[in-house]
Amino acid sequence: MAKEHRAINRVLGMLHEKGRRRLAGLLALQWGRGGPTQLSQITGLSRPTIRRGRAEVQKAERAAERVRVRRVGAGRPLAEKNSRAC
Fold first, then answer.
1. Which of 27, 37, 58, 73 is the most buried (most CB within 10 A)?
2. If pLDDT is split at 50, 70 and 90, which confidence band does 74 have?
């Protein structure tokens, strides 16, 4: 368990503020109930910061479901439109 704590803190130390918050939020989501409290003790981040990161991760997941890769009408034309055999 101590190795995991050191690994989490090592990664968090390499990130900027927003990245630390979001990674802690993601871990809190994975750990479930009591996750923010445990992470607060392990990382030294406050529970409200971890909860804010969790909310940002959840919002990003919902937004990613709606994002299109290409604009409407972009990409290759349909094969039926290209055929000259009409």
1. 27
2. confident
SS3 42: helix
Pair of tokens at residue 16: 């900027």
Amino acid at 23: L
The string of DSSP codes covering 3-35 is: HHHHHHHHHHHHS-HHHHHHHHHHHHHHH-TTH
pTM of the model: 0.70
Residue 74 placed within a domain: no
41: nearest Cα among 10, 8, 68, 70: 8
Q: What total number of domains does the chain contain?
A: 1
Under 8 Å between Cβ of 28 and 35 = yes
Cα separation, 28 vs 21, whole angstroms = 10
